[in-house]
Design a protein that fits this description.
This protein is α/β, with parallel strands linked by helices. It has a single domain, classed as Rossmann fold (3-Layer(aba) Sandwich), CATH 3.40.50. The chain has an 8-stranded mixed sheet with strand order 1-2-4-3-5-6-7-8, sandwiched between helices. Helix 1 crosses helix 2 and helix 5 packs antiparallel against helix 6. The two termini are about 25 Å apart.
Length: about 270
C-alpha cells in the first residue's frame, strides 16, 4: 500500500492505492464527516484480489489540504473525485461511500452514471433528512463558538463521535486521528468550513433521480446508528432499483471500523453481481 499527494486544481489531495490492476474494476472508497481514509484501513485488505483500490482523504480532511474557501459541499467533493479519476486514468469504478461519502457516491451515480460501475452505501446521508439536530445546533451557535479554542470544540466532537462506535477503544484511537487536523487555530477554521457545508441540498437535488441508478447497489446500515437512523437506509433501498439492504443488528455508525469483515463480505458479493 502506498500513499501520495496529487495536485487537483491548485489543491493537494492525499490518497493511497492498494491491490493490482487486474481484470476487476477499480474500487474507490469515500469517507464522511469528520473522518479520513483511515476509516477503511481494515476493509481494504479484505477486498477480493484483482481490483485496484483507491482510498482518498477528501479536501480538508486527513492529510489533504485545508479548504481555504474552496467548496466542500457534496457537489464540490464529487467534482474533485471525477478530476482524480481522470488523472488516475480510471474510466469507471465501484464507489463505496460512508456518511457524507455516501452522499458524494449518490451524486456521482446520478450525475456521472457512466463512471460508477457499482455502488455501496454505508450509513449514508441522503434525501433532505440530514444533518443531525446536533450539527444544526452547532451551526446556529457559530457566532458564539467560532472563536473559542479548538481544544474546547474538539472535546465536544470527541464525545459525540464516540457514540457512533460499538468498540469504544477503537473509537477513541481513531477519533484522535480524525480530529488532529483541526487542533490548531487554522484547523479550527477548516472545521468550521466543513460544519457550514453540511447541507442536504445536494442529496435532495438527486433524490428524485435515485430511481435512475442502474449500477448494482448494496446498502449496509448499523441498527443502532445514533446519527443516521436505519429508516434512512430503508428509504434509500426503496428508491434505488434492485438494491440490497443489510442491517447489522449490533452495528452503530462507524460500521467500516466496527465490522470490516461484514463490509468485506458485502463488497465481495456486490462485485459478483
Amino acid at each position: 500500500m502506498r500513499g501520495e499527494f496529487v495536485d487537483l486544481s491548485g489543491v493537494r489531495l492525499y490518497y493511497y492505492a492498494a491491490g493490482t490492476r487486474g481484470a476487476g474494476e477499480p474500487i474507490v472508497f469515500l469517507h464522511g464527516f469528520p473522518t479520513s481514509g483511515h476509516l477503511w484501513s481494515d476493509v481494504v485488505p479484505l477486498v477480493p484480489s484483482g481490483h485496484r483500490v483507491v482510498v482518498l482523504d477528501l479536501l480538508g480532511y486527513g492529510r489533504s489540504d485545508r479548504p481555504l474557501g474552496r467548496p466542500v459541499s457534496i457537489r464540490g467533493h464529487a467534482d474533485r473525485v471525477i478530476e482524480l479519476l481522470d488523472l488516475l486514468g480510471i474510466n469507471y469504478a465501484c464507489v463505496v461511500g460512508h456518511d457524507v461519502g455516501g452522499g458524494i457516491a449518490q451524486w456521482l451515480a446520478v450525475r456521472h452514471p457512466h463512471r460508477v460501475s457499482r455502488l455501496c452505501l454505508i450509513d449514508s446521508v441522503g434525501f433532505g433528512e440530514w444533518p443531525t439536530r446536533n450539527v444544526k445546533l452547532a451551526r446556529a451557535m457559530l457566532p458564539l463558538t467560532r472563536h473559542l479554542p479548538a481544544t474546547w470544540l474538539l472535546s465536544i466532537l470527541r464525545s459525540d463521535l464516540l457514540r457512533g462506535y460499538q468498540d469504544h477503544d477503537r473509537g477513541i484511537r481513531s477519533i484522535e486521528l480524525y480530529v488532529r487536523p483541526f487542533a490548531s487555530p487554522d484547523g479550527r477554521d477548516a472545521f468550521m468550513e466543513h460544519l457550514l457545508a453540511l447541507e442536504s441540498a445536494d442529496t435532495a437535488a438527486v433524490a428524485s433521480r435515485l430511481k435512475e441508478i442502474m449500477a448494482p447497489t448494496a446498502i449496509l446500515w448499523g441498527r443502532h446508528d445514533p446519527f443516521l437512523p436505519v429508516e434512512l437506509g430503508e428509504r434509500l433501498h426503496a428508491a434505488i432499483p434492485g438494491s440490497t439492504l443489510e442491517v447489522l443488528t449490533d452495528g452503530c455508525h462507524f460500521v467500516p471500523e466496527d465490522a470490516p469483515a461484514r463490509v468485506g463480505d458485502a463488497l465481495a458479493a456486490l462485485l459478483t453481481r
